[in-house]
Amino acid sequence: MPWLTLIADTDAEHAEALSEALLELGALSVDLLDADADTPDEQAIFGEPGEPPPGVWQHNRVSALFNDDQDVAAILRQAANKIGLKDLPEHRIETLADNDWVRLTQSQFDPIPISPRLWIVPTWHTPSDPNAINIVLDPGLAFGTGSHPTTRLCLRWLDNNIKGGESVLDYGCGSGILAIAALKLGAARAVGVDVDSQAVVASRDNAVANQVENVQFYMPNYAPKDTYDVVVANILTNPLRMLAPLLANATRQGGRIVLSGILEEQAQDVMDIYAQWFDLDAPVFEDGWSCLSGTKR
């Protein structure tokens, strides 16, 4: 059976109310996303230690799923009236075909070669090279499967620079992929930190699945106040700006920092901030994204 998907853009004032109204009027599910995602205006909504939460996104994209026999346009009009919107939000209605969603999802995630010796392998695949360093990882609730350019950029940096015995902080760990990769590449111990409790749980599960030891994952307020040989943060530009003093303090003198989640046009701005503490390398770019690295003075 096919479904209908309503995709509507609205502001922060009306996003949650519109979502609730659509659910009350028959939507099977509703997702709320940042309408500015993957642009310079992308906005983080999680608060960081010592900072108040920024709140909801300013430009929201509401995605609602309906049975195909429902009049979605009429439902949107009812929802808009219910919450006091005089004008309908900009929107479109798409047909979502019925599929074997498990197989379809799995078909989109083949093993990902990061380098000749480092691969990301979903559990439903056999490693292409059993002798390689294979990180077992499935797509899930937390960011970081190796498919996004920012994750690949950080993994390649780790592959090229972990020599053995390092301590590593993965700030904004998501799935835990970078901490796990660092350990498999020879790091001695790793700590992962994320503001999302689901990411912390996912990271712990992935560490068990990959049989790595000497790694712990924490919410920010519970993380140890240590310094590390390598600090890696694959987040977004705005949090990286705000977190600069914290990440600099977590890097030991002579240690290395690796930053990603930065659009290419934002790289220089981030470099200017971190140049207060680090001698920075030339940035590396892939598909419009940046990876910055440097050595703590």
UniProtKB/TrEMBL annotation:
Record's catalysed reaction(s): L-lysyl-[protein] + 3 S-adenosyl-L-methionine = N(6),N(6),N(6)-trimethyl-L-lysyl-[protein] + 3 S-adenosyl-L-homocysteine + 3 H(+)
Signal sequence residues: none
Pfam families from the UniProt entry: PrmA
Binding annotation for S-adenosyl-L-methionine: 151, 172, 194, 234
A GO-annotated cellular component: ribosome
EC number: 2.1.1.-
Molecular functions (GO terms): protein-lysine N-methyltransferase activity
Chief place where the protein resides: cytoplasm
Localization in the cell: Cytoplasm
Protein's GO biological process: methylation
Record keywords, A-Z: Cytoplasm, Methyltransferase, Ribonucleoprotein, Ribosomal protein, S-adenosyl-L-methionine, Transferase
Protein function: Methylates ribosomal protein L11.
Recorded family membership: Belongs to the methyltransferase superfamily. PrmA family.
Full protein name: Ribosomal protein L11 methyltransferase
Gene that encodes it: prmA
